[in-house]
Amino acid sequence: MPIFDMHIHLKNRSPCSHLSIVDLKEGLSEKYDGICITDHHIVNATKTVSHIGVKVFFGVEITTDLGDILAYGIESVPVTRRAEEVINFIHKNGGVAVCAHPFSPHHSCFQDAVQDYNFDAIEINGSLANKYNVPARKIAEILDLPTIGGSDAHSKDQLNKMGTKFSIKIKKMADMVRAIKEKKCKATKIY
């Protein structure tokens, strides 16, 4: 079963990141079959990361009025920052909307409002202590949503914390989107 890190930010693409392509190539665990670059408000930022030895896909992290949303399977980013409109845009364009780090004390997050929106999955975030991921797992269970895992890496030392294990082969972004919609994925620890 393939494992992907679903939440990575690259230097010069996300203003908060110090993670270079060289750092990514040198630091990524062999446990991963692939990664998803999710820079802030940028889709398909660069194709140069395709030579790191694993499959590379592009999603995007979108900051909304209520919290951050990870989107996979879309070609452009909505202009609006209203959460409901962003989720509708993602779905209308064939993608999936994932509630990023829903109970984080450090990020823009939905908290309990996550249950009021039409998310396709809940993120278990590798940059957070377990006590912030426990309520994320609980809300995913309550809402009957799958979990995805990502390191939320902004530097080399933040890699290899969390991943997403898929129960189907992932050859292209459409496979990833389908797996999330069909609940054929689950967050898993890497270390």
Q: Terminal Cα separation, in Å? A: 17 Å
CATH architecture: Alpha-Beta Barrel
* Helical content (DSSP H or I, runs of 4+): 10-25%
Q: What is the typical, i.e. mean, pLDDT?
A: 91
Provide a count of the helices.
4
Question: Which strands sit side by side, in order, in the main sheet?
Answer: 7-6-5-4-3-2-1-8-9
For this structure, what is the CATH class?
A: Alpha Beta
Strand tally is 9
- Please tell me what the overall shape is: globular
Task: Note down, in words, how this protein is organized.
By secondary structure, the protein is of the alpha/beta class. It has a single domain (3-181), classed as TIM Barrel (Alpha-Beta Barrel). It is built from four helices and nine strands; from the N terminus they run E-H-E-E-E-H-E-E-H-E-E-H-E. It has a nine-stranded mixed beta sheet. Helix 3 links the parallel strand 6 and strand 7 (147-150). It is globular, with a radius of gyration of 15 Å. The model has no long low-confidence stretch (mean pLDDT 91).
Characterize this entry briefly.
This protein has helices at 21-27, 83-92, 130-143, 173-181, and strands spanning 3-8, 34-37, 55-63, 68-72, 96-99, 121-125, 147-150, 162-166, 185-189. With 191 residues, the protein is α/β, with parallel strands linked by helices. Strands 7-6-5-4-3-2-1-8-9 form a nine-stranded mixed sheet.
